[in-house]
Design a protein that fits this description.
By secondary structure, this protein is mainly alpha-helical. The protein has four helices and no strands.
Length: 90
């Protein structure tokens, strides 16, 4: 039987923080390419792939793919803990 997936608040917390960081950095002013350096560090190692996507603006790339990256990390953490709690109960 198919069960519908409903994300928990924890799964949405890390992507929300990433999205807030993106918007905070987009509103502030900085010199040169140092503006995106905090996002590059936060999204490491996926940021190497993001930088190669030269057809989009850097901020758009970090907003879209960086937030997706953190969503997938949150899902992996949730599934890892869910699997660990299931195996400890049996």
């Amino acid at each position: 039987m198919y069960t519908r997936y409903i994300p928990t608040p924890f799964v949405l917390l890390l992507p929300a923080f990433h999205l807030a960081l993106c918007f905070m950095l987009s509103l502030g002013s900085s010199e040169g390419s140092w503006r995106y350096f905090p996002l590059f560090v936060v999204d490491f190692p996926a940021s190497f792939v993001f930088v190669r996507l030269g057809f989009l603006t850097p901020m758009l790339v970090f907003i879209l793919f960086g937030t997706l990256w953190w969503y997938l990390i949150s899902l992996f953490i949730r599934l890892a803990f869910r699997g660990a709690t299931r195996s400890s109960r049996s």
